[in-house]
Every structure is written in structure tokens, then in C-alpha cells.
Amino acid sequence: MPVEVSHVPEAKRYEARVDGASEVAGVAEYIRTTELVAFVHTEVKAEYEGAGVGSALVRTALDEARAANLRVLATCPFFAGWISRHPEYQDLLYQSRSKVSD
């Protein structure tokens, strides 16, 4: 069951479709600035859970963030969990540059 992911910037999200269907099987919503992209919500329709839709959304979104030289803020629990299991993407995570003084 091939999963195709497309970036829909006007909707500020990535959309996944399965087997070339017109129906959207899952989405990953984001907020983007010039320096980072915050992934805020991921949703996969129940009938597509466990079919790799969520992973395809995350991998595509993170690969595009890397290509655009953006840092990633994973506020969505699905994104955060996926990144924690895939160390090859952990270098994308946003690190605050502010220093707390005592």
C-alpha cells in the first residue's frame, strides 16, 4: 500500500494519500517561520492507522525541513515520539539560543 505525501503550503500542512486515492488518509499541520517549523498536529484516519501513513508524513516533512535548512520544533506528540526513535533526524530539533542567568 504505497503512501504519497504532498506539501500543501496554502493550508500549512502535509497530506497523505494511499494507493493514489483522492481521499486524504492523514495530515500533519505546522507553523513555519524563517528559521524553524513547528509541527503542531498529526492525524491519521482510523482505517489507515498502522499502514505507515503517519511515518510517511513525518519523514517527508522532516526531509523537506532539512532541505530548507530549518530547525524543527516537535510540539505534536506523534512527531516528538517518531523523532526520538529515529536518531538520524534528531539534529533537526530546535535548541533555544537564550541563556538563563542566575
Automatic annotation (TrEMBL):
Entries under Gene3D superfamilies matching the protein: 3.40.630.30
Pfam families: Acetyltransf_CG
Stored CDD domains: NAT_SF
PROSITE patterns for the chain: GNAT_YJDJ
Top-level lineage group: Bacteria
All residue ranges annotated as the N-acetyltransferase domain in the record: 6-94
SUPFAM superfamilies: Acyl-CoA N-acyltransferases (Nat)
Name used for this protein in its record: N-acetyltransferase domain-containing protein
